[in-house]
Amino acid sequence: MTKPIGRHTWAIAEGYIPPASTGSTREMTSHETVCILNAGDEDAHVEITVYFADREPAGPYRFTVGARRTRHLRFNEFADPEPVPKNTDFSSVIMSNVPIVVQHTRLDSRQPALALLSTIAYPLDQ
Amino acid sequence: MTKPIGRHTWAIAEGYIPPASTGSTREMTSHETVCILNAGDEDAHVEITVYFADREPAGPYRFTVGARRTRHLRFNEFADPEPVPKNTDFSSVIMSNVPIVVQHTRLDSRQPALALLSTIAYPLDQ
Amino acid sequence: MTKPIGRHTWAIAEGYIPPASTGSTREMTSHETVCILNAGDEDAHVEITVYFADREPAGPYRFTVGARRTRHLRFNEFADPEPVPKNTDFSSVIMSNVPIVVQHTRLDSRQPALALLSTIAYPLDQ
Amino acid sequence: MTKPIGRHTWAIAEGYIPPASTGSTREMTSHETVCILNAGDEDAHVEITVYFADREPAGPYRFTVGARRTRHLRFNEFADPEPVPKNTDFSSVIMSNVPIVVQHTRLDSRQPALALLSTIAYPLDQ
Q1: What phi-psi label fits residue A97: left (phi over 0), alpha (psi between -120 and 50 degrees) or beta?
Q2: N or C: which end of chain D has fewer CB within 10 A?
Q3: The model's pTM
Q4: Which residues 6+ apart lie within 8 Å of B26 measured at CB?
């Protein structure tokens, strides 16, 4: 499988970084993740824009996903141009120069029993 | 990203507001949410209709999602024209005058360990 | 909203009824649910076929979803032509004479802390 | 229902096998699952390729899903050509010679209260 697969643009309408965690390791820290698969033979240059309820969008946040590689990026680790605030509703749009596949996952460990959610992102271009 | 993205009409077949919560804050109260992203430069005027098992639909519930903004609306806070009953199965249809992206999330805190679910809504128009 | 929306045929590749529950009420009993929205003005006659790993499919299970109504059907309550076994992997295909929207949800209460999953079903006809 | 339904190629951008479990049975062991429905009358020959963050892809892993059957395959039980490492981010692409429907589910039992996620995979060919 070396041909590029997926779409250039995706949207995730849900976004929220839980404000607390019970775990102390990175593995069990509450996180909001965008998983990106680049199955093609060319590096993917990805730009993520984050939308809020009451201010102009933040970003773009820039990442490279190598050829035939996947990256699971955590919004709570975004830093440049600015961190994504915790305990705040947001949405995101993911744009790439080559086709990619995008999925959204949250691990919420505010309570000792963690909770998970995941959904395929919404593909915007045909 | 200022061009409108998404669809005008979406459906969420699942809907349910848990009848209880263990949390006392808004953050940890059980809730059923519809997340709406309006990435375009024009305000989105949104109408939500709620369907039930044994009565005619309720609504429309009307909301505005500003240009380049997101809103995460909680069904358990809907009031006009009528509240959405708890512990009752429902579905919803979301219609907008401009393209939007819609995702469905539930936080269930009936038990001390919360549970989460989420899925992209179903896009109805091409 | 009285025009029919959705598709005639849907598939859910995941299916599993947890073999136990900690709750004693119907609300907290572990369940596997198919949520069906019929937003049109004509009753939907729905047939569900259940697929297994090691035997021929079961069904069809027949249900009516009234005009402008939703039904959240639990696989663990299916009875005719035969019950769906617990603790067994299955898949399902949902066919309707009019367009519907289908979503899949599980509540797992094998442990005191319940877990949830949900996803839109896969629409098969254009 | 004997006509083949679905697509030939699917992608799951999220993949992760939790490194621990609290359950001792197969049922309650943390697992990452790809659920495959073959509703047609011909056996499906499926090849799964697994993508990582920092090395070339693994696979293909080969499976047969019989006519009118479903299989819920666990990545943590993949063995040939190599096991899928735990506690490692991955993605997967699923290819079949006949149309299938694919869904992704995780059961995480690292803590006594299990957590679940599920989403339809992303269909890649029309």
Answers
A1: alpha
A2: C
A3: 0.90
A4: none
